[in-house]
Amino acid sequence: MSDGRHSASVSLQSSVGATSAEELAEKYQKLFQEFSRLNPSWLVGVGSSKKALEKSKVTLEVTKKLHKELYEVNGVYAQHVADLKAKIADLEKKTGELQELTRSHQASEEALRTINQEKNELDNELVETREELRSTQNLIEQHEQKLKEGDDVLRNEIDALRETLSINLGLGENQNDQFNALKDKIDPESNELIESFRHLQSSAREYLNSLKENSGSYELGLKVKNASQVWHQNLQKLAINLSNAQNRISELIAEKEKLIKANENDSTKVETLEKEIIRLKEELENQKATANSLVGKSGGSTFTKMEECFDNDDDPPLLSGIFVYPIGTVKSTNIESSGQSTKELSLLSTVGTQTSVFRNGISLDHNIGRSAKSEDAANREQLIKKHYEAKIAQLQEMIQLSDSKSLRLYQSLKLMKEKLTESENAKSRTEQENQKLQHEISIMKVIIYQSIIYLFERSDKNAQINTMTEWIEQQNNRIKELETDLTEYESGASQPHFI
Question: Residue 181 falls within a domain, yes or no?
Answer without folding.
Answer: yes
